[in-house]
Amino acid sequence: MLSFSYRNEKLQSWGIFRVVKSFLRIIFFEKWLGFVSFFGFSGLRISFSFSFCKLIIYTSLVNNFIKMAIEPDILSKLPFWKKLRRQILLKVVHDNFFEYDDCFVPTNIVHSAQKKNIADIREDDRETVLFDHFLINCRRGMNTPFIQCVQAENKIIWFWSDDFFKKQNANLCRWLDDCFRMATTLFELQLITTRLRNDKTRGYMINVFCSFVVRFLRKNVFDPLDELYKMEGKNLLTLQKCCMDLHAKFLKPLYRIANQIEKEDIIGGEFINFLFDQKSLHENRFLTSILDDIISLSIERYYQIIVEWVSSCTLALDVGHEFFIWDLRKQNVVDRSSFDVTGKLDWSDFDNYFILIPQLIPVDFLPVKDQIFKFGKYLYTMRQQNAGLTLLSFHYSLEASVFKNLSLGKFCDKINELFEKCSTNTLEHFKQKYDIINFAKKLPSFFIGLNTNWIYELAELFEKNNFTNIDIEKLTSNKLNGLLTQAFRYAQLDTTMHYKYFELNISPFTKIKSEGITPKKGTFPALELNIAQNNHVLKLAFPAKILEPYRRVFFLLFVINRARYLVHMKFYLRENFNNPWAVQECATIYLFNRLINVYQEYICGIAAKEYNNFVKKLEKVKNLDELVQVQLEYIHIFMENAKLDQEYLPIRQLIEGIANQFCLYACNELTFFELNKSVSPFVGKLKHFLLTNRKVGELKNLLFGSSYSEVGEAAGCYEPLWKLLQYSY
C-alpha cells in the first residue's frame, strides 16, 4: 500500500490531474484504434501492438502515482513563516490563473520497428544526420528514429546507438554527450520554470523571473540552435562547441538559480537579496544583464507597495505576501500569535494585524525598515483615532512619482525625510489628544514618587484595607485601581487628566505561582503600575523599554514604603516591646528606617538631579520618535546613576529582601530573634557587594558609612543585626 506525502494542495491537485489525463489517453486511444479498424484504413501503418501501447500508458499512470509518493516533502524543510505564508496563499489566491504546459521533454513514442541504426548510415553522412535529429529533438521536442529522449523517475535519459557502436566511435559519443548534457539542462530548466509559474504560492517576482528566463532562452538559446539547423556543412564538433558554450554561459547558471529558488521557496525581498548574491558570482554580461532587469522590476514592485503602504496603510498590491510587512486581516487562516511574539508588551492594535518579516527585507532597505514599518503604524493609529484631515492629508497626497528614478541611497533619504514629517504629525495628534509632552514630564512623579510621597500613601491604604490578608484572586482590578486613585488624590496627583491612564495590576507570574493560595500576612504579591491596557496607542509614546525600568523602580519603592509603614505602626503602637531585647529592637528599627530612607532619598535625588535637563529636552522635541528617544536617554542615565540597572541588580534585590523580612517581623510572622537570623545574611551580602564593586561610588558610604569592614554572609550569622546596620564614621 502506497503512503503518499503531498507537498501541498497544488502538488495533490496537479498529480490527480495527471492521473486523470492518463486515463483519458487510454480511453481515447482505444476509441481511435476501434475507429481505424472499423473503417479499414490500410494506408495507416500501426507498427506496434495495442497491448504494448496500453502497457506504456499504464506504466505512465503508475509512474505518476510513484512520483507523487516519493516527492520530497519540501514543506517540512521550510522555515515556519514560509509554511504559514503558503497556508495563507492557498486560502487567499484563487485558481483563476493561466496553467502553463510542462511538455518540454519529447513525449512521442518511437517504436523499435521505427528506430533506425546510425551504423547503417554512410559514414560521411552520420554527423549531419545526428546533427539534424538532435536539434529536432532539442528544439522541437520530438523524438526521432535516430535519437530518443525519455523522462523516467525524474531523470532524462538519451538513446541513440548501441554500446558497441559507441565504443568504436568515441569521438561521436563524446561530442553527443556534451550536446545531451546541454539539452538535459535546458529541459530541466524549462520544467522548473513551468512548475514555478503554475504554483500560485510563488508570487509576482518569481513569475517575473520565469518570464525573463523564457524570453532569454528564446533569444539566446533557441535562436542560435535554429541558426545551426539552417547552416550548411554541419558537423558535430561545431554543434558540441555551441552546446558547451550555451551550457556553461547560460543554462547551467540559470538552472542552479531556478533550482535553488524552487527548493528553498525563495520569494520577495529574500529573492532580491538572492539575485544580488548570484550576480556577484558571475561575470557573464548577458547573465548579469538579465539578473539586473529582474532585480529592477522586483524593486520597482517594492516601491509600488511601499507607496500604497505609506499613503493608506494597506497592502492590496502585495497579493503574494512578498513584501516584508504582512497584513493578516486578508484571511482567517493564521493569526498574529502564530508568529514571533517578541515585544508583545509594546503591541498596539496595529500589531495585532500587521507583522514584520525580517527575512523578506532587501539588504538595501535595512537602514529604513523601521521607518517604513512605523510609517504604517502611525498612519493606522491616526486613522483609528479620527485624527484631523490636516494631519492625514500628507499621507493621502503621496504618489508613486515620489520615488520614481531614485537610486537606493536617495530612496532611503526620501523615506527618512517623509517619515520625519509623519512622526511630527503623529506627535501633534498626541499633543491634541493626550497632552503627551506634559504626560511624559509626569512619569517620574507617578513611578518614582518624585516631589510626592504618594507611594507611601498607597502602601498605607493597602494595609488599612487589609488587602494583604485576602486571596490574590479577590484582588480585582476595581479594588486595586480604587486604592490607586485614592492614593493619587491624597498626593494631589489628580489635578491633571493623566492619572486616569494608570492602572495597578498583580504580576501575571505571581498570579500563576500563587493561584488558590492565601499569602502570609507579612508578604505581598508583586504589584505593577502600568499605562491602562485599554490605551494601547500610548505604547507608541511610552514603549516597554521606557516603562519596564520605571515599573521596577516603583515596585522597589512600594516594598520599601510598605516596610516603613508597617514597622512604624509596630513601633508606634509599642506592642510586644516589654522584653529583654527592647533596647536592641528599638536600635535595629531606627537603623533600618535610616537605611531605607537614605536609599529612597538617594534614588529620588538622582531622578531630581537629571529632571530639569529632561524637561528642557522634552519641550524641544519635534516628533514622536524624538519624544521616545529623550525619555530613553533620561531613564538610562537615571537607572545607571542610581545603581538600579542590571550591573547593580544585587543591591536592589538585597534591599528588597531586607525590607520584606522587616514586613514579616512587623506583622508578627517573625520574632526579633528570627529577624536577626534572617536579615543578617542579607546585610552581609550587601556590604560584601558594596565593598568589592568599585563602581558603586557614594552609595557605599551613604548606606553604611565610610569605615565599615566586609563581614560576608557567614559573619552575619553571629553579628547582632543592629551592629550590622550601624552607620560607621
- Briefly, what CATH class of the largest domain? Mainly Alpha
CATH topology of the largest domain: Four Helix Bundle (Hemerythrin (Met), subunit A)
Whole-angstrom Rg: 39 Å
Uncertain parts: 1-72, 509-519, 712-716
Q: Portion of residues in helices?
A: 55-70%
Instruction: Outline the biggest β-sheet.
Output: 2 strands, antiparallel
Distance between the termini: 89 Å
Q: Total number of β-strand segments?
A: 6
Give the overall shape: elongated
Structural class, judged by helices and strands?
mainly alpha
Task: Examine the secondary-structure arrangement and name the CATH architecture of the largest domain.
Answer: Up-down Bundle
> Strand arrangement, largest sheet?
1-2
Strand content: under 5%
Discrete helix count: 26
The CATH homologous superfamily name of the largest domain equals Gamma-tubulin complex, C-terminal domain
What number of structural domains do the residues give? Answer: 4
Integer average pLDDT: 80
Keywords: Cytoplasm, Cytoskeleton, Membrane, Microtubule, Transmembrane, Transmembrane helix
Subcellular location: Cytoplasm, Cytoskeleton
Domain Gamma tubulin complex component C-terminal: 453-665
InterPro entries: GCP_C, GCP_C_sf, GCP_N
